[in-house]
Amino acid sequence: MSNAYNRPDQLSPELRKRVLDTARRLGYPGPDPVARSLRTRKAGAVGLLLTENLSYAFRDPAAVGFLEGLALACEDAGHGLLLIPANPEHEDVAAVHSAGVDGFVVYSVPDDDPHLAAVMERPVPAVICDQPNLSEVDRVGIDDGAAIKGLARHLIELGHRKIGVICMRLARTRNDGPASSERQVNAHFHVQRARLAALSEAFAEVGVDWEQVPVIERFDHTPESGGSAAAQLMELDPEITAVMCTSDILALGALSEVRRQGRRVPQDLTITGFDGIDDAERVGLTTVRQPVMEKGRAAGRLLLDAGESTGKPREVVLDTQLVPGSTAGAPRSVEERWFGP
Amino acid sequence: MSNAYNRPDQLSPELRKRVLDTARRLGYPGPDPVARSLRTRKAGAVGLLLTENLSYAFRDPAAVGFLEGLALACEDAGHGLLLIPANPEHEDVAAVHSAGVDGFVVYSVPDDDPHLAAVMERPVPAVICDQPNLSEVDRVGIDDGAAIKGLARHLIELGHRKIGVICMRLARTRNDGPASSERQVNAHFHVQRARLAALSEAFAEVGVDWEQVPVIERFDHTPESGGSAAAQLMELDPEITAVMCTSDILALGALSEVRRQGRRVPQDLTITGFDGIDDAERVGLTTVRQPVMEKGRAAGRLLLDAGESTGKPREVVLDTQLVPGSTAGAPRSVEERWFGP
DNA sequence: CTGAAAGCGCTAACAT
DNA sequence: ATGTTAGCGCTTTCAG
């Protein structure tokens, strides 16, 4: 009878039909997928672990793009996509343990995330996206350092030397305010760490002392965070001529706060983002575009690809693109700003 | 040993630790979730069936809002959310059969969808969202008829009598063009059927013969579809003073096409949408807002709620809201349009 | 083509 | 407090 469902070719169509009809009449609901999974050792699904609440993921355009790509790859392979409820506040790892999946995609979690540890203990393959940068696991990402260096050099060419930075959370502990160099270097989010390090390098090349550059951290990744961080930055150091944000969401918030305070962009202040989300392009934000959808797709492909047998972990590094918008321009000196050109 | 993992309270912490340590040292990866599911008869996950390709869902803001709400509800209950790869083009129902879930949420599928039939055969609860309107299943939706009637009366009060309609697909077969009354009445998508029926009623009340109202159908739910449908509508009947669309996505496309042709909105033509997505509010589209996120949340709650035992199906009907924007105004007569006011 | 049986890894009930 | 066992429903293998 198992054959009737699973191997239509092994018996006559007529018999098959008879068996299936009878089964249905007897109220048999079809093979139990869980029992089948146990036996065949495959679940037909990919698990996705995110650092944020599930619902947040749907509010971040970059995350949605990633999901779109990942869903595409899963769909192509006939696999489902299981979103795992991993509340970053809790250390409850049960959801990872009880996910019936053939593998995991881990999207942008801190390197000390207990859920990540739980994933790594499961005897199924995993692909890590963006961060952390574990050497033993397949990985998809971009060259964060090179990408943001391009942006930094763009500003340097325009003449900026006094900048401020707004970044996303650097650790699982909340810190809304200035981030010390130590905190920057020890950041548990590889992406943020790499971007800050690259910025410090790029500006060191033109003689800027990174210790003097204010870096404001925000735990929540929202436009409101970007706005308040921009305000804090301007108050902390009124002489900065540019604000570099490590995401478009933060930059868009900063942009509206700066304008709300009556300062013109880019004449009075330059603002840059990172990601290249639709809204950023719409308002002409100067930023770096990264292929978020492709990232999801690549992660899914890597996980589901048959050629998974090779010993050493594979790595996919996707290209990024500088998007010169209308929010970056040459700085005016302090004198000019107060007394006119 | 099972106890060590599942019932920490049943044995001494010390022993528990010893057992777990030994297990790990022996390379035991923890209890297999699939075997556990088989035994306990629960998967800890909710399946979501969509009418579109998975990846499409992430491009439609209304669907993303729904997902956000559903994910929220699942998260609250500690359940995962499994996105089921149900390609609407294929009749391949295997993905539904092999989904290890405790229940299904079905989002906006046609009433003759084979995947839906497969879901109904599974011996787990289901909640249907928006459509179809099956009497035996729990349901979450809005009063589509009442909602769009409010919009229709708004236009009628403004003086519109000659309108055109752009609607989404009415069946699983592609028909990009006029939809006959018969096709409208027999539509397999309950939501579209209800909205068209309500429009016909509302306009019948002021003496408009629905047979004379052009209804243009589009299979793909994109702004481009809305644009080309608007063009077709204007060519088909240049005298119409208003275009009512059954979604904001279509309306936004129509809006830009109409403007591209040099006609002013609403002076030359009134345009309305449906859903209340962010982009619609941003451009001031006259539309109806429905609480998409709440819809997802309600669907999840209904499915996961313990009080599932009652005999008759439960129904949640959410409120909608007329959003008078700047794309609806009084019509100008044909004479005015050609010879000025 | 059909039937019987082993066993996937777990949990819950029962026995010690 | 710990050890033993039946069986969840399926697929696969082997014998008829």
Number of domains of chain A: 3
Instruction: Look at the structure and give the CATH class of the largest domain in chain A.
Output: Alpha Beta
What amount of the residues of chain A lies in strands?
Answer: 5-15%
Low-confidence stretches of chain A: none
Q: Termini of chain A, distance in Å?
A: 87 Å
Helix content of chain A: 40-55%
The number of distinct β-strands of chain A equals 13
Shape of chain A: elongated
Question: What does this protein look like?
Answer:
- The structure is a homodimer of 341-residue chains.
- Chain A is of the alpha/beta class.
- Chain A folds into three domains: 30 residues, no CATH class; 130 residues, Rossmann fold, CATH 3.40.50; 165 residues, Response regulator (Rossmann fold, 3-Layer(aba) Sandwich).
- The mean pLDDT of chain A is 93.
- Chain A is elongated and about 95 Å long.
- At the A-B interface, α3, α4, α5, β2 and α6 of A face α3, α4, α5, β2 and α6 of B.
- β2 of chain A pairs antiparallel with β2 of chain B.
- Chain A binds a DNA duplex (16 and 16 nucleotides) through α1 and α3.
Properties at a glance:
3 domains; homodimer; 43% helix; Rossmann fold; five-stranded mixed sheet; 341 residues; DNA-binding; alpha/beta
Can you summarize this structure?
Two copies of one chain form a homodimer. With 341 residues, chain A is of the alpha/beta class. The first copy, chain A, has helices at residues 2-6, 13-25, 33-40, 54-57, 61-76, 94-97, 114-121, 144-158, 181-185, 190-204, 223-236, 248-260, 278-283, 292-304, 334-339; strands spanning 45-50, 80-83, 104-107, 126-129, 138-142, 163-167, 177-178, 215-217, 242-245, 270-272, 287-289, 315-318, 321-323.
